[in-house]
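Summary for the steering committee. The consortium agreed at its last meeting that each partner would contribute one worked example illustrating the joint modelling workflow. Our contribution is presented below. We chose a case with several input lines so that the handling of multiple components could be demonstrated. No manual editing was applied between input and output; the record is shown as generated.
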Amino acid sequence: MRHFMGSVNVRQIVLPLGQMAIFVTGAGVLCSAIMLILAILFRGSGADQVLRATQGVGILAYTLDSLPQVLIDGVTIGFVYAAIALGYTMVYGVLQFINFAHSEIFAIGAFCGVESLIALNGLGVMAKASAMGSFLYLGLALLIGMAASGGMAVLVERVAYRPLRSSPTLIALISAIGVSFALQDIIRLVESMTSGQFYRVIPTFGNFDERINLFRIGAKVIDIQVKSVVVILAAVVMLVALNYLVGSTKVGKAIRAVAQDKNTAALMGINVNAMISLTFLVGGALGGAAGVLYALKFTRIDPFVGFMPGIKAFAAAVLGGIGNLTGALLGGMVLGMIESFAGAYLGTYTMGAFGAEYKDMVAFLILILVIVFRPNGLLGEQVSQKA
Amino acid sequence: MRKPVATLAPTLAALRLLLAAGCDKENKTIKIATQSPLSGAMSVIGSDIKGGTQLAIEQLSEPLTLMGFKVELAPFDDQGNPDTGVANAKNIVSDPAVLGIVGHYNSGVQIPSSEEYHAANLCNVSPANTTPKVTDRGYPEINRVCGRDDVQGVVGAQFAKSKGIKTAYVLHDKTAYGQGIAEYFNKGAAAEGIKVVGFAGTEEKANFDAILSPILAARPECIYFGGIFDQAAVFFKQARQKGFMGMCLSDDGFDSTDAAKIAGDALIQGAGTYYSTVSGGASIYPDAAKFVADFKAKFGSTPQPNSAQSYDCAAILLKAIENATRANGGKLPARADVCKAVRALQSFKGITGTYSFNAKGDPAMGKYFVMQVTSPDPSKWALNKIDQTLSIAPPK
Amino acid sequence: MKEPLRSRYQHFLALLDRGRTPYFVSIGLIVLGFTLVYLSPRSIPAFLVFVVAASSIYWLKLNRAVQLGLAVFLAVVLVPILGARNVFYLEVIFQIAVFSALALGLNIVVGFSGLLNFGYMAFYAVGAYLWAFFGSQQPYLLHSTVTTKALNTPFFLAPDYFYLFIFLGVIVAAILGLILGLPVLRVRGDYLAVITLAFGEIVRQLANNLDKPLNFTNGPQGITPIQRPTMPEGVLKLFNQVIQPVVGHRVTDNQAYNILFYLIALLVVVAVIVITYRLDDSKVGRAWTAIREDELSAGAMGINANKLKLGAFAVGASFAGAMGVLFAASRTFVSPETFTFLQSVGVLTMVILGGIGSITGVVVGATVVTLLNIQVLQSVSLYLSQLRQSDAVIPIIGFHWKYLSNQLDPTKYQRLIFGVVLVVMMIYRPAGLLPAARRKRELGGGPEGKDLDGKEV
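What follows is the complete predicted structure of the assembly.
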């Protein structure tokens, strides 16, 4: 109550950062511990013998050896999921409605960001950009992607969701599915009319592909790509900024008020429609930024690129407790870790009977189990409290 | 009672008009149908299958036009879905003007749909279905210009052996195409004495980090990827960035300039990137370069894999229809005669190869090229070097 | 000017309902439609006349017995004859039947009891793979891979087990529905959407991945050949001896099979419709509605919500299971590509478009979407492509069709069209094309404004 715009509330920045650190290390330690226990249990099993025969290491040594890299990969993809999940969770928190079209909002951000980078590359400025310059260009692409996605999200809300606000959620959800389909083809139509391309590839620039050595264990160097660091940092900034916006500003308070009770909020002089539009703008912009980061990390995008990460991020949001901002981070982190661990170890542990192809399935299975045993997600209690 | 009767006559007259508009009675039109996914995520290749056919019809139908026929393209969208594909197939066979069909992209759609072509004696030449089952049924109507998985996978293995590869990791995209080739590579590798240190499939299209951990731990000298470039190129790039310096090897789904656009420098690092294909690039088949230029001029983008093959499919059909028509005294031939005419073609020179078909409908002597990527520049893709040429007859 | 036109229209409608007129109109239309399609089997307008004729049986006020008799005659005699002349129509009607059954099954879950299900195709997949596995050589090929040379393995079961497997499909899918239903008891609304979505995706991926360690599904390659039931002795004979002059050519085995599958599908759909009607009118149906509207109050009224929800899932799933078996046999091929999330959404679209909770509406929805999907959009695209290849010019603006961009093709932008249709429907007609009476009241207005019959007060 005492905080107003302008006076920065340091607590609201430090607290989520601390939370984030706890979640990331917690998820990492938990997954690693489970993995190590499994490795110890598997000593002497068929998988162990196969490993000794082919690679000359026991299963415990094998697991320990690759663990740091798997953790880093899990954290990176976890942050990507978390960044996308924020959009789902923002909208859900305010409207109790699954914005199914968020995956396409994400794709639009990715396309606009990549197209602007391609245009810049065509001008020839990026080839000779310094490290600092390349970060600036990336920042520009992020802004363009955020603007495009945020704008599109607001437009979609105005056209397809607002008329349905008083209808049952099922109706709005179907409208959202409709928007999602339509946007996929609109991206394709626009791309095929303009660039004539289906795949867009982010130009190579700056030092994003290089690797930074973190530490070494014996002869093995654990490193991380610059772009992974960028993705993580950007996601952290987004999470903290959003937390601050919702938790400590006047606008955030208004959003929370709308989330709690639209009618009463309106009586208190809050412009409900404006706040909902703002929610979509912020959620969409975050999705757009996530799209550009995704393109940076994984190079190639196409008009249907949003679908899989969209579903995963949605699952992450539900996993953490949809409508809960920190839940999105936790959900993303858990999902990213599970995927990373399943992809890396499933094949080895089952001697190839069940391989990396099951990594999505493991993620979905755990999602189902979590929902069944904790129907409101891992951090679900605060659903009705927080935006 | 009088009223309805009185109105019936004009209604009938109107309907006759509508009917006349709806059906094409003149048998001076020859249609060549295409079936490929034109909507959805697979449309990028499906549209270009249609595009290649369209280009062939525009450029090569002159002999038939001189005989007084109009050759038309009838494009259908199978959505990569067997239900739609079969429905389209029935629609196609019920149109007597259709004398040939180019398609499909997915084997899963081709196999049930071709049962309909078989029932109606309609000739199908496939530009992309490499699954052995497609022709192993022995239907006289079904042919293909592309290779077979059980040949191409083995070609890959033989090539790897010739390069002194001792260990390989095999990855595929969990589609009928990629998995088929990967399985045959696996088998071929075992026969050649290459140790396959891992075999996995994934539907993942972007994030290969998790899968790369066990691959790198196994330290293979070569990674074989069975699948399309949109996954393979992303995968190779990420593998290189994680420090894999062995050989990258893939199949004819890799043959696209977009592969270079996606993976860039990663393709020429380490032990290099190779792919097997039935079309040997510009130096062997100069017409292929012309096709790429024409395609780009017409559709504004470079053709995807299988597009040049679909051009050849249409060319083969047109030539066969022409031959059958001449044999029929200038009258429209029966569908079964077109099928026979296709099988009777001897050394038909297309833009991606020289084709004659065996009794099953496979190209009689498959010539496979293993190409080495020589430049990360997409515009120099056509200059990729032929590293080896292998001639292998398909299994009987 | 509007009023007179409207009253004339109403006058016309009244005329159609008077005395024997509906009988003449309906029979006349059927004769007309049949003749037109018979004479020009490829004409779309002719087919549309036939469709109107068929629906006139339902819409016009006819004696119940006459209605039934006409419908049976149309479905069992006329359609197969036309189908033998043009297999495409038979396929269209077959698919309409299949998707109607699927949509009706989903309607029980979504429409009657208000539980959202995004993974409905999973049950269809289970039915399809059930017969695909037992009705092919697959049980003998458990240890084979793609590269194993196919030997002359016998089929596992005799082809006529197919009929038994339709019932087994029902049972197995229902059991699976119960299993999926269990978590449903604990979660509501949007979480349910996620669970079912994940479940559908898991089943598809299982189908795609279970080619090792033991080869159950043959992975992405799919299972083929799958057996069809043996053709009843009389059918081919009937066609080729008795009514060959009517059909105009010999009926091949394949065409006869198309007709057989059409008839089986018809039978299943009729059974499904009857079951659905009976359920809707029963105590169970009303209990479902009560749960959908307010679970808490329903519980207070002594309704065992958990049991009923499970029941809804099981019944809905069972329809899909039966259709899956039929699908596998009619295609002689199954592969995981058929059972994607998109397909689940497609069936949901049919339910919503037609009218959620309304049986006629759902059938109409399935018909419209299927027609749009495999007939209308395709033929518009073909027509455009024909224009593009001709020298035709749009008269007034002098635009040559051949310069029309290749990117503008309705089939290419099918999702766009479906998406826009969904959004527009939700905004302007959320209860669907033919809303259920209950739903119409519900969405038609708030507490005031409209009375219970939906008329403005």
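Chain C has two domains: 1-85, 91-363. Strands of chain C lie at 393-394, 399-400.
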